[in-house]
Design the sequence.
């Protein structure tokens, strides 16, 4: 009995353990090459498909249809005590479209922005809270992202926008029933069924841009919090047989094992960004952003488990009793704290005949929200400096088939993580002290086509 019911319980508990998946890849690496090369400091300046992520109001700056397609690739090198932790790379297709128009002479624009990983649409990985993991990287960045936004421009100096972002979660369960032979496991007779549903969650994002005298534009953007949950139910119902599986004289113990698991598989904190851009000359613009990120509402991703085991012990069998069910470990409080993220960017554009070439630089400092991990938990993170560079080539009026523009943007950025020492309060901690360091290389390109 202990050799069958308890291993099944442990296997299910492991399968439904916490996933290290938080938010989406755009928060960590940026969206489309121009905005990424500018350090993400584009709340007041964005005016392309990436407005669907940074500030939906920027969509209203476009007066003609625009489509963009790009590719993102990152190469993390994250280490503890000099050992590579083999954090997965993030790569996939990015892009979208903007379709402007007018309703009752009011300019508006509809935008669609997507990020599609080219290896998987979603990923969940089981890790206990005691196992070291890079909490803000890992599988949090393996996510499908879809945003639909609408912007209007009631006056030439004002743009307003809002949109919905769609993410997916899973709810379901499985049932196993039949007879399990304790003495002849190969002769067990079991049937099983699986039922799962893919459900969508949505969250709001909105923004505004205001043009001021002196070639200055101010911007504000809001991105709501969302949580992605995975709920799974498991039921094992049947009989444990001591003896031949079909022997009527065998000892038969009817029983039921039930497990209910609820785990937060993704979390995005609420964010508010304020930004400004100063167009110093027609060729040179400087931009700056400050973003508040509400990490303090982050929850422990360890699975919440409800376990029940009920065995009917036949009368007259001395010394046979129902085993105790292993209790899930208590979940530690996370105690993440809110952060402020400053960003700056610079763009210099030089004409090349009727075409143009843009040089871009960007930087932002992202302080870690993760507190010291002196107790049982090992959620690894460190403050990061992110430096970015990019080029943008704009080709105009290439012929009758394409009277608009073609834009090719490329970017490269490097995240440099501050070294962080994890010192445990208990000298007998099973993991012990360690040093966390790392870098992340981010490369990408975007091709945009605009039609007049």
Sequence:
């Amino acid at each position: 009995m202990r050799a069958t019911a308890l291993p099944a319980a442990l296997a299910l508990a492991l399968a439904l353990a916490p996933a290290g998946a938080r938010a989406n890849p755009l928060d960590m690496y940026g969206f489309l090459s121009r905005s990424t090369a500018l350090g993400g400091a584009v709340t007041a300046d964005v005016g392309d498909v990436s407005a669907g992520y940074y500030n939906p109001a920027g969509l209203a700056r476009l007066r003609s249809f625009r489509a963009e397609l790009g590719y993102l690739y990152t190469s993390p090198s994250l280490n503890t005590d000099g050992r590579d932790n083999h954090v997965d790379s993030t790569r996939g297709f990015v892009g979208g479209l903007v379709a402007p128009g007018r309703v009752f002479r009011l300019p508006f624009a509809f935008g669609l922005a997507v990020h599609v990983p080219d290896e998987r649409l979603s990923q969940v990985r089981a890790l206990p809270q005691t196992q070291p993991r890079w909490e803000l990287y890992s599988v949090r960045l393996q996510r499908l992202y879809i945003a639909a936004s609408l912007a209007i421009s009631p006056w030439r100096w004002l743009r307003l926008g809002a949109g919905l972002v769609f993410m997916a979660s899973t709810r379901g369960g499985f049932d196993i029933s039949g007879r399990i032979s304790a003495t002849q496991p190969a002769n067990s007779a079991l049937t099983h069924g699986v039922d799962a549903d893919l459900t969508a969650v949505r969250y709001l994002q909105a923004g505004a841009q205001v043009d001021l005298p002196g070639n200055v534009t101010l911007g504000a953007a809001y991105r709501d919090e969302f949580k992605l949950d995975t709920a799974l139910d498991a039921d094992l119902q049947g009989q444990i047989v001591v003896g031949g599986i079909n022997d009527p004289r065998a000892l038969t113990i009817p029983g039921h094992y039930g497990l209910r698991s609820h785990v937060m598989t993704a979390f995005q904190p609420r964010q508010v960004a304020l930004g400004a851009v100063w167009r110093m000359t027609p060729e040179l613009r400087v931009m700056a952003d400050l973003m508040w990120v509400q990490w303090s509402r982050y929850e422990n991703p360890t699975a919440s488990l409800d376990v029940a085991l009920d065995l009917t012990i036949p009368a007259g069998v001395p010394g046979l009793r129902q085993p105790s069910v292993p209790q899930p470990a208590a979940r530690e409080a996370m105690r993440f704290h809110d952060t402020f993220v400053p960003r700056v960017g610079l763009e210099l554009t030089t004409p090349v005949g009727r075409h143009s070439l843009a040089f871009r630089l960007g930087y932002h400092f992202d302080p870690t929200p993760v507190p010291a991990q002196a107790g049982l938990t090992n959620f690894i993170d460190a403050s990061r400096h992110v430096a970015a560079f990019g080029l943008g080539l704009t080709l105009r009026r290439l012929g009758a088939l394409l009277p608009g523009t073609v834009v090719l943007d490329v970017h490269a950025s490097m995240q440099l993580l501050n070294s962080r020492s994890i010192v445990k309060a208990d000298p007998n901690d099973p993991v012990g002290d360690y040093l966390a360091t790392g870098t992340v290389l981010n490369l990408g390109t975007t091709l945009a086509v605009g039609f007049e």
